[in-house]
Amino acid sequence: TTIMKRIAFSLLLLVSALLVVTSGCDKVKDLASFDVRTNLPDYKFTIDSATVSPALKMGGTEVLLGYFPAVVNIDSVFSHYGVDKADIENSSFTMVQLTIQSPEGVTFDWLSSARIVVASSPTLAGGVQVAHTATFSSGSSTITFIVDETGINNMITNGVFYVGIYGILSGPLPVQTVGLALQSQIVYTVNPL
Q1: Which among 20, 33, 110, 133 is least buried, having the fewest CB atoms inside 10 angstroms?
Q2: Which range is most confident: 13-22, 33-42, 73-82?
Q3: Which pLDDT score is estimated for 10?
Q4: Are 77 and 190 within 8 A, CB to CB?
Q5: Per the confidence metrics, is the pTM higher than 0.90?
């Protein structure tokens, strides 16, 4: 009977200890996770009025202004933080800005709206919108996008994804070619395994 009480008490202690340890694992994992902010390289490109002008004739038709591959070297990030394996969570864009670089004095008065789409495919098939414009001031040479709360975990994990800049023109380009630069930043949570 005393042996049975000791065994029962020992089992109770063991079960209690297991409950504390397993509930504590999630807390330890939460403490070990961390956010990483990454500025994607500036994407510089030009648009030609001959290429985008047909969209004006169609009235309000969206046109692809430019696209580029974005590379996130996850292995390098893991190595920098001393992590062997991890899950990526809560990834999204935190900032997107489009600026006219040339010629000087040109503004976005020819653009009605714009949006940013990302996809796993270079054709942008199956892409998801991550940012869009609201109304912007006439005479602006920089547009700051409103960032959508769109998760891109699988694209970050894959290391390469494609960013497309779409726009609806409100008028012709004021010059033959316009030089643009897209600046953007992403954030993601690394949960070490």
Answers
A1: 20
A2: 33-42
A3: 54
A4: yes
A5: no
SS3 state at 123? coil
One-letter amino acid of 121? S
Residue 156 near residue 77, CB atoms below 8 Å:
no
Residues 142, 100: contact at Cβ < 8 Å? Answer: yes
pLDDT tens for 80-117 read: 888 888 888 999 999 999 999 999 999 999 999 999 99
Single-letter code of the amino acid located at 87:
D
Angstrom distance (rounded) from CA 59 to CA 52: 12
Dist CA 187 CA 171 (whole Å)? 35
Judge whether 101 and 119 are in contact, CB under 8 Å: no
Cross-strand pairs, 183:
97
Cis peptide before 103 (omega within 30 of 0): yes
Report which listed range, 8-17, 39-48, 52-61, is most confident: 39-48
Residue 178 near residue 63 (C-beta atoms within 8 A) = no
Cis peptide before 192 (omega within 30 of 0): no
Q: Are 88 and 36 in contact (CB under 8 A)?
A: no
Tell me how crowded residue 42 is: count the other CB atoms within 10 A of its CB: 13
Work out the number of other CB atoms within 10 angstroms of the CB of residue 88: 21
